Prior knowledge:
The chain is of the alpha+beta class. It has helices spanning 13-21, 43-48, 52-67, 70-83, 103-120, 122-136, 237-257, 273-287, 339-351, 375-391, 393-405, 411-418, 431-450, 460-466, 472-490, 518-540, and strands at residues 35-38, 93-95, 138-145, 154-160, 165-175, 182-193, 207-210, 214-218, 221-222, 229-230, 261-269, 291-293, 300-302, 313-318, 325-329, 422-424. The protein has a four-stranded mixed sheet, with no helix packed on it. A three-stranded antiparallel sheet has the order 4-3-8. Strands 14-11-15 form a three-stranded mixed sheet, covered by helices on one side. The termini are far apart.
Amino acid sequence: MAKLFGFEISRTKEEIKQEETVKSFVQPTHDDGAMEVVAGGSYGTYVDLEGAAKSEGELVTRYREMSMQPECDTAVEDIVNEAIIVDNQSPVNIVLDDIDEPKALKDRIREEFGNITKLLDFNNLAHDIFRQWYIDGRLYYHIMIDEKKARDGIKELRKIDPRKIKKVREKFSQTDQRTNMKMEKGYNEYYVYHPKGITAQSNQTAVKISKDSICHVTSGLVDPSNRMVLGYLHKAIKPLNQLRTLEDATVIYRLSRAPERRIFYIDVGNLPKMKAEQYLADMMAKHKNKLVYDASSGEVRDDRKFMTMMEDFWLPRREGGRGTEITTLPGGQNLGEMDDVDYFRRKLYKSLNVPITRMESEGQFNLGRTSEVTRDELKFTRFIERLRARFTHLFDNLLEIQLVLKGVINRKQWKELRDNLYYDFPHDSYFTELKNAEVLTERLRLMGEVEQYVGKFYSLDWVRKNVLQMSEEEIRDMDKQIKREESDEDSPMNDDGIEDDSEPDVQEENFEPVEMNEEDRKLIAKMSNLLENLGTDDYEE
C-alpha cells in the first residue's frame, strides 16, 4: 500500500505478536460501517461494489432534510437539550476517581482533556456538535499535528463532511491447512476522502488517509447486512413521510370540500343534442363571470371556458322533467377532526424515543411525587444516558492520540485506564432525583416498621442488606464515616468547627483597696504578735 496522507502511530511488538498468534474461524464484527476489501484489491474495486458509500451519503442528506421538518426538529431539540446542558459550567468533565495512579498523572490527564475541549471549542459548540452527530449518525475530525514536533500534540481539529469520507478495511486472510478454512490474518484500516463526495467516478483522485489522522465516531447502529451505519433518525423516515402525506391530503380535501356548490338543471326541451349543448353553454356564460388577472402580463382575461373542481355544475334536463332547477351541495363534514394526523404525529415521536407528553403544549412537568412522573420520562432519561455514553467515544479517541503523542502514557497503559475513567455531564432533569428520593423514603419507612424486631428475628446486618439495599462496600464505608463523626463530636469544637486546645479563660475579680484608721493598724499588729507567740509555744512543747 502506498504511503498514506497524515501520521500513523506505530504499534508495539507485543501488539503485533498477539495479533499473529491469536486465531479464530469466526470473522470479527465491527459497527463502524467500514467497507471491507480483500488485500491486493484496488480502490476502484471497492467503488465498483456499488454500494454503501453512495447510499450512505444519500442517507446523511435525507437525515438533514428530515431535521428541517418542524415536528422532527422539535424532537431533536428535546433530545439535544437533555443531553447537553450549558449552565455557566462546563458541558462535560472527566472523572478519574476510580483510577489507581499517581496524582501527577491524573492532573496531566485532566490538563490534556481540557486542551481537547479547547480544540473542539466544546464549551461554546457542544450543542451544535452533539446535534450534528445525532442527526448524521457519524462524526469525522481531521487530527492535525506538526510531524516535526509530534511531542507538542494536536494542533487543530477540523470537521469533515461525512458524505466525503469513508472508512476502508483491507483484510489479509490465509487458508488453514487442517480445516481448509479461510482464517483472517490481519487487516489494514484507512480512510478515503474526496472533496466532491465518494462516488464511482472519484476513485482516481481520492486521497487515502491514515487511520490515526482521523477521529471517527458513529452512532453504533448498523443495517442488517452490517455494511452501513444508520442514524438515530432512520426509524422516523416512514412515520415522517406518512405524516407529511396525510397533512397534504388533509389540506387538499378541505380546500375542495369546504365551499358549498350548486347544481343547475337546465331545461332544454326537445332540442337536438348539439343545440342543447350550445344552449347550456350560453346559459353558463350568461350567469357565470370568471375574470382572471394575469400578474405577469397585467392583462385581465376571461377564463369561463375552464371549469375547476370547486365550481358549480351545469346539467341539461329533457322535456318531461321538473324543468329548470337549482340544487345546493353541502360542504365537507367533520372537517375539524384531526385524529388521523395526531396518530401519525404520536407515531413519529415514538420512533424518536421522545415521550408523547412533550408533544402537548399543556403537558407540564410537576415537581411532585414520582407517581406523577410517567414511565416514558424515565425511559427517555435512560436513552439520553446511552447517547452520552456513545458520544464520549469522541473524547476517548482524541485523548488517546493526545496522550500518546505527548509521551504521557502508551497505548497499552491507555487500554488499562480506559475502563476506569468516565465523563460526567451535568443533569438538568429531576425525574431520577425524585425517583431516588421516594425509593429512599419507602425504605426508611419499612425500616421503621422492622426496627422493633431487630435483635429478635432479624439482625442489623440483614436489615441493612435487604431493607436498605446496601452493599457490603457501602456498609463498610458508612461505618467508617459514623466512627469518624463520633470521634469528632467527642472533641471540643470552637465556633468554626475546629478543635480548640486552648485553656479556658479565668475571670479575674477586681478588688478595691480599703482605707484603715490607726486603731485598725494597732489591732492587726497586736493580733500578729499573738499568733507568732502561740506558734512558738506549740512548736517548743
